[in-house]
Amino acid sequence: QVQLVESGGGLVQAGGSLRLSCAASGGTFSTYCMGWFRQVPGKEREFVGAISWRSANPYYVDSVKGRFTISRDNAKNTVYLQMNNLKPEDTAVYYCAASLKYLLAVTIDSYDYWGQGTQVNVSS
Prior knowledge:
Blueprint: E1 3-7, E2 10-13, E3 18-25, E4 33-39, E5 46-51, E6 59-60, E7 68-73, E8 78-83, E9 92-99, E10 113-114, E11 118-123
Parallel strand pairs: 2-11
Antiparallel strand pairs: 1-3, 3-8, 4-5, 4-9, 5-6, 7-8, 9-10, 9-11
């Protein structure tokens, strides 16, 4: 069983930055694809980005390219989402997820374990 715990959310003004962390326990973190998703009330959960176990070629949704960066530290069993130049439309609950099956995955059903989420609010 894999447990994922996100942290680092909060309130920030537009143009500001936040770094989210997702700490994993149980399982073999270094072999997992790790993804970040976000969700606002009334909307479907949206893919943000993902990183393979080797940290090669992280993949991002177009709306965050150039602003968000995913990285991971396998020694610390942690994946990060650095968010720069935040916009009000980035406001959401952010979730990290682990895929045990895929090298890199973008769909919700590709992921096996999920964190509880952390709230990010961006004010205009």
